[in-house]
Amino acid sequence: MGETRNLLERLRRLARNLYWTWNQEALEIFRELSPRGWQDLYHNAVAVLEDISEYELFVRLEDPFFAGRVRRVLNDFDAYMNRRETWGSHHAPELLERPVAYFSAEYGFHETLPIAAGGLGILAGDHARSASDLGLGLVGVSLFYREGYFHQAINRENWQTEYFVPLNPATLPLDPVVDGEGNRVVGEVEIGLGRVRFHAWRVNVGRCPVYLLDTNRPENEPLFRELTLHVYGGDSSTRIMQEVLLGIGGVRLLRALGITPSIYHMNEGHAAFLALELIREEVAAGRPFGEALERTKGRCVFTTHTPVEAGHDFFGTGLVKYALGQIQPQVLPDFGQFMGLGRVDPSDDGEPFCMTVLALKTSRAANAVSELHGRVSRRMWHRLYPEGTEEEVPIGHITNGIHLVGWMKGTVRSFWRHKLGDGWHRDVHSPEFWQRVLDPEFISDEEIWALRYRLRRALVEFVRRRSLFERLRASESGFYERLLDPDVLTIGFARRFAVYKRAPLVFEDYDTIVKLATDPRRPIQFIFSGKAHPADDEGKRRIQKIIHLAKYSELKGRIVFIENYDVHIARQMTSGCDVWMNTPRRPLEASGTSGQKIVANGGLNLSILDGWWREGYDGTNGFAIGEDDHPDSVMEQDRQDNAGLLRVLGEEVVSSFYDRDERGIPRDWIGRIRRSMATLLPRYTTWRMVQEYTRKYYLPGRAPAGGDSE
């Protein structure tokens, strides 16, 4: 009885650590406890344990075989958490004492905790997971959005509508942040004319804690209680107040917890107000502003993700004066000089306050998220550094990656475990591991093709279930039975439906795509998903167009749009699609990572040569649309890219997929899969990315002087 109770307590502790989201054996334990509950409770380990009586758990753990599996998972978890010999302990031991503080307005971990709007948050979540795997000293800071990002529903006019679902912290993998006596740690930040009090929640991401600030406290005014209601909620006034809470409140929370970071990493400009708090602390200690600024710069690094100026946060003078009116005199007595911290030209009273400018002026180093994005960013901000050439602008680049094991579908993780044994994941980041995939003696074409069929079948059945539910909800019928075909080349497109991402580009030459999709011998089918910003009617029109084609055109049954895109849908699509289609208007895709996720599951990337793909593509490991340049004219770029996309689909993708030998195996296609895995998976991971941040930026004295010099 005592041992069983101990197992139960350890199991509850595991459920409250997101380690289980990327450990297949742990995940299988929770799913097996209640298969239906696992589905109904949206794969939430905490909620599954809450839904099962303690007596049932005791009984289940009395089964020696099941208890043995649980014990192995828990022992592995304890070993992971307590491991002292790690990459971080060897290469950055100073960060274990004084960690990196990684500030991001959103974190994307898992569908259980929907507090991210898109790729920025997914990257932040993967950054934290890899920091944990590497044993790097890192703490995260963000906000707890108690209604998360909006949920999407499509109405009878095929138009996106939005609604929100409250989150219940009691059934989420969150722990309240308390002091040594068990009392909530409460902080305070000045916003507008008031003082806003906040508490925090801790998300355990393996070995790395991420703290989420929450203003839902009874002593706050209703306006401030709702400050952390929605991801990027409300108007500019809500946005600036959220960013004051994130940056200034986040630093104050770390102080209250006794955490003294060595480096503050601003993931996008949303977090840049943290620099004001660091300056304020230095000024309060008696240092003049100039010295305070220099000391702050020595502790801050900044990552920009936005390749268009309009995508950066700008705030007018009146709004800055209102939101920061109490804090500003403690940083700089002169309001004009204070505004100058966020202006390219400090003397221009008409220039708004830009969070990216503030971040650049208060950081010792800055980086973009791909090589091309670095060039675009240096050109964009050259006017901030007019004394040098464009290439001397101090913005380098570190290309984004993914948390490799976390984005492998469970089927893929189980495949490698059965083939290589329980320790397979220890070598998964080494180039040598993936070079073995090139060897048919190590893994046969037949094994790869069988795995891809399992994944495609799982995706088709998932889409059919989702589509049936959506159509029953909308009182539609007669569509489910012939939706998609597990034998057909399946192309996925899923991301935020911003206009520049050009989701409907493939349909611009309608007659050609109909011929390709409905070819009786070599057909293709498309799965789309994604959300448009609630204020983006043009993005919503693109969703509407795709759904209209899916319902009323000759492409019916060959196109489907899945509502309410989230991490769960992303996992299904990036594992089951054969090809991931990415058609941004170059050079507006800063990096992108969804094409990296499909590679982890044996799919192939098909993309404009923008972001990470222009670095990764070598002619054998996927498909490229167009050349490594682009016309200045938007209309001409769209025309050329549509023609290039249809050419690659018709001449390369379709033929490679359907050309089969006498055994029915597409040897050329599988050869591309092998090359894709061997050349891309060792490079485009957050394992490599976090190591690069550590070497270039986190360790003392690591601050490139300009461009990409080290």
Q: Which characteristics define this entry?
A:
single chain; 710 residues; alpha/beta; Rossmann fold; 3 domains; 6-stranded parallel β-sheet; 29 helices
Radius of gyration: 25 Å
Helix content: 40-55%
Strand content: 5-15%
Number of beta strands = 20
Shape: globular
**What's the CATH topology name of the largest domain?**
Rossmann fold
The span between the termini is 59 Å
Low-confidence stretches: none
Structural class: alpha/beta
What is the CATH first-level class name of the largest domain?
Alpha Beta
Query: What is the count of DSSP helices, taking H or I runs of 4+ residues?
Result: 29
- The biggest beta sheet, please? 10 strands, mixed
**Total separate domains:** 3
Please identify, by name, the CATH architecture of the largest domain.
Answer: 3-Layer(aba) Sandwich
Assembly type of the chains comes to: single chain
Let me know the average pLDDT.
94
CATH superfamily of the largest domain: Glycogen Phosphorylase B
Task: Provide a descriptive summary of the structure in words.
With 710 residues, the chain is an alpha/beta fold. It folds into 3 domains: 2-82, no CATH class; 87-400 and 692-698, 3-Layer(aba) Sandwich (Rossmann fold), CATH 3.40.50.2000; 405-684, Glycogen Phosphorylase B (Rossmann fold, 3-Layer(aba) Sandwich). The chain is built from 29 helices and 20 strands. Strands 1, 2, 5, 6, 7, 8, 9, 10, 13 and 14 form a 10-stranded mixed sheet that branches. Strands 17-16-15-18-19-20 form a 6-stranded parallel sheet, with helices on both faces. The protein has a two-stranded antiparallel sheet with strand order 3-4. The mean pLDDT is 94.
